[in-house]
Amino acid sequence: MGLNTQPAFDVHTDDAKNGSIPDLISYLKSAFRLPDFEEVKRILVCREEKMKEEYEILEKKNGDLAMEKLEAEDYIKAYKNARDELTEQVRKLREDKRVDW
To answer: Which regions form coiled coils (predicted)?
Structure first.
């Protein structure tokens, strides 16, 4: 009654879930009208391109923020070191003052 044919593309595999939009659309083409699928494919490919652009922008922004964070941490570290040095100087001055009495 039925033919034992394997689908060329199985949507239940990890490859399908991670497949590109054109591959997924090609899989569905045979069941629907080609012009509709071409339009949907165009729309989805545009969305994918926009998402990639947004991702790249966010990656750059993340890198910039990471650099700013490192600079701020270095700034804070320098002030903490200066504070520690001043605290040590004050301690020595107080100690010297006690000895002079």
So the answer is: 41-96
pTM higher than 0.70 for the full model?
A: no
Q: How confident is the model over 6-21, as a mean pLDDT?
A: 63
What is the C-alpha to C-alpha distance for residues 48 and 40, in angstroms, rounded to an integer?
Answer: 12
User: Which of these, 97, 73, 93, lies nearest to 85 by C-alpha position?
Assistant: 93
Of the candidates 38, 41, 37, 36, the residue with the CA atom closest to the CA atom of residue 21: 41
The CA distance from 52 to 60, in Å, is 12
One-letter amino acid at 42 equals R
